[in-house]
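Hey, quick one: can you model this chain's 3D structure?
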Amino acid sequence: MTARRKPSTDALLEAARVARDRAHAPYSRYHVGAAVLTKSGRIFAGCNVENATYGATVCAERNAIGAMVAAGEREPVACAVVTAGPTPGTPCGICRQVLSEFAADMPITLVAVDAAGRTVARSQERLAALLPKAFRLRKKAKRRRG
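Sure thing. Here's the predicted structure for all 146 residues.
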């Protein structure tokens, strides 16, 4: 039996780069790609999708989490975000909160690229450092029906 290899950070970053290329950002022109790696070894990517109302815009990180949940996964263990340079962008406050819904902490690799897609800056953050006091509701015990 062959052991399943855990995807590398490079695979996670590549998924985020590919997603960034597909972003719909006609208003800000700020294309973002994100990818999350789950405990099972699967990678889910998302890109930002802007809307003329701005309020209906959905960030790349939330789209990646949505793809993860839609596929039946619930345990992200790492995240990558790719933005335009010269410095990497970090997830917005809403995205930090959404990520923390599924993981109290995880590494987040941030990469900035130039117009040709070459990496110009890279940093590593922790979700818990970006959102040190995440909002949490206590989970209620499931009620039995019947």
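One thing worth noting: Residues 66 and 120 are 29 Å apart (CA to CA).
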